[in-house]
Amino acid sequence: MRKIARFTCWITLLTVATITALTLPARANSWQLPAEGSRLVGENRYHVVQNDGGSLEAIAKKYNVGFLALLQANPGVDPYVPRSGSVLTIPLQTLLPDVPRKGIVINLAELRLYYYPPGKNEVRVYPIGIGQLGGDTLTPTMVTTVSDKRANPTWTPTANIRARYKAQGIDLPAVMPAGPDNPMGHHAIRLAAFGGVYLLHGTNADFGIGMRVSSGCIRLRDADISSLFANVTPGTVVNIINTPIKASVEPDGKRLVEVHQPLSKSIDDDPKTLPIVLNAAMQAFKDDTRSDTSIMNHVMEIRSGMPVDVTRHSERALQAM
Length: 321
Description:
The protein is an alpha+beta fold and 321 residues long. It has helices at residues 2-23, 56-63, 67-73, 159-167, 222-231, 280-287, 293-302, 315-320; strands at 30-32, 40-41, 45-48, 87-90, 94-95, 103-107, 112-116, 122-127, 130-131, 142-151, 187-191, 199-201, 212-214, 218-219, 237-241, 245-249, 255-259, 308-309.
C-alpha cells in the first residue's frame, strides 16, 4: 500500500507540474500584496524536465526566475543538461524585504528586484544580474532615485571597463551605439547616486540574469526592463540593500525564514559556506522560544532561497501531524 501511495503521489506531482508548465503565464512575476502583517507573496511552481537537451538557464528564462535562484532551489541538478523526467522546484514564493514598500527595492543577496507600482496593491518581482567581484564592479547599497531613462541607449564604457577588456585583448570603442551589439539592450534607467554611473538596463545576451556578471549596473531581461521603463518615472525611490536572510512572523503566528547565499567578497569565498551574520533583530527571532532553532540552523545551512516554516511545535502537535 505504501508503494502504491508513493507512486500515486509521484503521478500527482507530475500531473500538477505538467499542468503548471502549460498554464503558467509568460511573466509570472506580479503578485497581490499580502494582508496586513504578512510579508509572504507568490507561489512556488514545478517543472518536469523534458528530453530536449534544454539547459537550466532556458528553464529559468521560461519562468522568469534567476539562474542561481533556480540552482539553489534544486541542489544537485545539472546546470547544463538537467536529467529528463526530473521535477524542478520553481522558486516564485518569497518574503518581501523588510523595508518600505515603495518604488523599487533591490536585494543584491537574492538577486531580485521588487517594484511597487504607485496606486496598485501589487508587487512585481524580477530576477537581476549585478556587479561581479572586483573593486570597481561591485554594485553598492544605496537609497537614491531614478534621475533619467532612455530608450535605445548608447553605451560609454568607463576607463576602468575599457582597461579590463583591453587586458583580455578586446578593444572597446569610446561610445557604442544603440543596436544588437550594445550590452545595455533597448532600455536604460539611470540612478541619481554616485554621479549617475549606475543604471538599470537590459541586455543583448540571454545568459547572466540571476548572476554576478555586470560591471556594477543592474541587468534585467529585455522584457522586464521594458516593463519597468514603461512604468517608472524620474523621482521614483530606489532602495538597494544586501540582505541574505529574511524572516517574518505571519498573522497566523507562523514563523518563516528565507536564506540566500551571501555575496562573496573575494574570489576564494564559497557562498555556500560563507558565514551569515545575524543582526540583533534576526538573532532575537532565532532565540525566541517560538522558533525551532535546529530547523533554522538547517535552513541557514542549505540556503535554498525559499521561505521555510521554522515554527516550534509542541510534542503533542507533532504526534498529531
